[in-house]
Amino acid sequence: MGATVVTPTEIPIPFESPTAVVEIKEGWSGAWKLRPDIHVIRATATAGDEIGSATLRRRYGNVKDPWAVAFDTKSALHINGYWVRIRFGTESGFNTVWVGRIGSDTRTIYGSNETASGVQEWVAHSPKQILRRIHISRSYWYVEGEGPNIELDWVPDMNARDKRRMLVGNRSENDWAAPSGEGDTYLYGQDELWSYHDALTYLLGRFVDDSDNDGPAWRLAGQADLLKNVKDVVSWSTTQTAAEMLDKLIPRRLGFGYLIKDYDGGFEVHVYALNAEDVSFAGTTLARNPHTVRIVVSRAIDEFRTHIVKSEEHKYGKIRVIGRRIVVCCSLQGALRAGVASLVPKWDNGDEQDYKDGTGGPLDDERKHDAARRDDKFRPVYQLYGAPDDWNMDGGNAAPKLDDEGLEIESGAEFQRKVRKTLSWLPIREGYDNTVDPPEKTNDEDDEPDFMPPAVWVWDPDDDNGGESPRWVPAEELGIGVSVRTTDWGVFLSASPNHILAKEHFADEVPSGTRPKYDYERLVATIAFETDHRAAMTYEPADASGKEVLDIVASNAECWYLAPGTKVGIDRDEDGQELLQAPDDGIILRNDTEEMALIMAGAIARYHNERGRAELHFKGLLNWGHLLGQILTTVEEAGDTEMIQSPITTIEWTMEPTPMTIVRTGYT
Q1: pLDDT for res 446
Q2: How far apart (Å, rounded) are the C-alpha atoms in residues 4 and 12?
Q3: How confident is the model at residue 142 (pLDDT cuts 50, 70, 90)?
Q4: Is residue 325 domain-resident?
Q5: Is 449 exposed, middle or buried (0-12, 13-18, 19+ CB in 10 A)?
Q6: How many separate helices (H) and strands (E) can be counted in the chain?
Q7: Is 333 in contact with 343 (CB distance < 8 Å)?
Q8: Pair (409, 555) in one structural domain
Q9: Quick one: 442 and 556 in the same domain?
Q10: φ and ψ at 66, to 5 degrees?
Q11: What percent of the chain has a predicted confidence (pLDDT) above 70?
């Protein structure tokens, strides 16, 4: 007896090893020709990053083949670049186990005086070698008014992020026929988001498929549809190979692998999940690989050799997926607005007094004093504002963090006050009602409104506003410019003159051609900044031990939070007397949970579940090429079960010194 492989269909080991035969053809569209004089020495089929290969051998010169009755003179073959197919002949017919293309010819010359003689050996490589030889530095576009299939000499990133880190699509709305005519692909040139599935069909259809040139067709297969839900930035260099692009678009970090299979028309990129069981986290599930295999090893130890490595090196007690720092949007307010000021002057008191003094000459007129006050050294006075040095982060509301599943905001996280920077934008959009959760669009425009800039509202008293009642007015409507602080949490207000904002702080007896009108202690500024915590998810099972932590970076994952009570506009229906504000619970404006959760599910499958690595040797040539990419779940022997839970990444057949089939699984 040998061993059996149990799958939905049982695959027994035959008592007699099949015969390996070699077929070749020069062009892909040609017919395969049997070459019984070419022998297989070794063949390896691989999944993922590796390139499979086959070594073939043939004698030339004065040769007697085993099936011949006499010697015959045979010339050396010139078959570099030919396609080669290895098939196993069994009682049920011939089955293809390996397809590739011959790349090199090595000869051992015997040196006969009568006729050229020796041994030829060829090394053929699997189809991934083709992908490594296709360099891509061009792109295909749909251009309005010009049509599809415009070819340009550069490769844009797929999708992108604008200065506010929003995902921006650059895929066409419709798909268009590829040159081969074998399928349609999307192009660059419009505003849709690329999925990884879209990008793969574009890559294969535009640059790899060679069916219109007497070459093989290429297509997607397997669990490729799972990649339709993956949409993110994919960055390209000036040039890269199709293999490099393929590896980026089938990301191992998300729990995907692939292999290249042959079919009647060419090759297919067969996508598969790396996990044996469905893995869920934060409501997102990474579907399992449905194709699993269990190997039962018999007691006939002369039939095989089994080598199993059970390693804890891949396991971690805690796994964290970490994105970018959380962006919080909150309001800072002057003392007369908030009682305890969170927006305070950031200029020097001595400079303020010098500003008031103007020229310093008591007899100079007000024009000279005002001219002196325009000196650059007075630029911060009455114009530079920020959070206090001991700011409590709005009672902790401006210091949020996410829970372990990355779903809920927890306020009052630990924070520091030293490193400060204000963003030049707010994570809230114009044309939305941001007083409700989720914000509601208030206009009928088809285009998505832009993000708001940092906003400042000024209290306009009722003593000098044309008879209007007291009201809040956007600073820009009063001719006051707003810019942000790059070294603080705060704003710079460009007022003319500075002291127009110094009501109650600039004495009437100070000579000036302009009297103060607004009080800087009645300012409200809504700003945004990055907090000290990140968009993140943490997986730590109850049985975790030790301090080993794996961090996986989701470089584009964002969380934006609108803090409770943040001022988001004015109610113009009430003459601007009331500021509108965010709900008391705040609003999570953006949280890339799905992206992080998919990464986490893949990480749990790879770095927490029990897993091993196996290498199994079987005598004879076993027709097991179809097992590549399947999950080897267990190896059993006499009731003893070893958990493996790893994909089969290599099938090797070797003829020397004796026919052998080797199955390997790999950590992923």
Answers
A1: 66
A2: 5
A3: very high
A4: yes
A5: middle
A6: 7, 44
A7: yes
A8: yes
A9: yes
A10: -60, -30
A11: 90
Per DSSP, which regions of 228-313 are E strands? 240-241, 256-263, 266-273, 279-281, 284-286, 292-297, 304-310
Backbone φ, ψ for residue 292 (5° rounding): -125, 160
- Residue 317 to residue 325: CA distance in whole angstroms: 24
Note whether 231 and 103 are same-domain residues: no
> What is the token pair recorded at 223?
């669990």
3-state secondary structure of 243: helix
482 DSSP β-pair partners: 493
Is 363 in a helix, a strand, or coil? coil
Return phi, psi of residue 493, to 5°: -105, 125
* Nearest-10 Cα torsion for 196, 202, 205, 209: -70
User: 40 and 178 share a domain?
Assistant: no
Residue 187's contacts (CB-CB under 8 Å, 6 or more residues apart) are 140, 141, 142, 148, 149, 171, 172, 175, 176, 202
Asked if 88 and 165 sit in the same domain, the reply is no
Closest CA to 7 of 290, 257, 287, 274: 290
Give the strand order in the sheet containing 344-345. Answer: 344-345, 384-386, 490-494, 481-484
Does residue 478 register a pLDDT over 80? Answer: yes
Residue 236: both structure tokens together = 């390209």
Quickly tell me which residue has 């419709």 as its tokens. Answer: 174
C-alpha 639/C-alpha 296 separation (Å) is 9
Amino acid identity of residue 230, one-letter, is: V
| Residue 283 belongs to a domain | no
Two tokens at 423? 């963003």
Q: Are residues 176 and 87 part of one domain? A: no
What span, in angstroms and rounded, lies between the C-alpha atoms of 238 and 155? Answer: 7
Please give the residue range of the domain that contains residue 513: 321-347+382-602
Strand partners, 365: none
Q: Which residue has the tokens 């028309």?
A: 265
Please give the tally of structural domains in the chain: 4
Last residue of a domain, one of 564, 580, 602: 602
Whether 279 and 601 have beta carbons less than 8 Å apart is answered as yes
Q: How far apart are CA 91 and CA 535, in angstroms?
A: 59
Domain boundary among 273, 302, 335: 273
- β-partners of residue 121 are 57, 106
Question: Whole-angstrom Cα distance, residue 602 to residue 257?
Answer: 11
- In a domain, residue 312? The reply is no
Supply the pLDDT for residue 594: 85
> Six-digit token pair at 353?
């007094």
pLDDT at 11 > cutoff 50? no
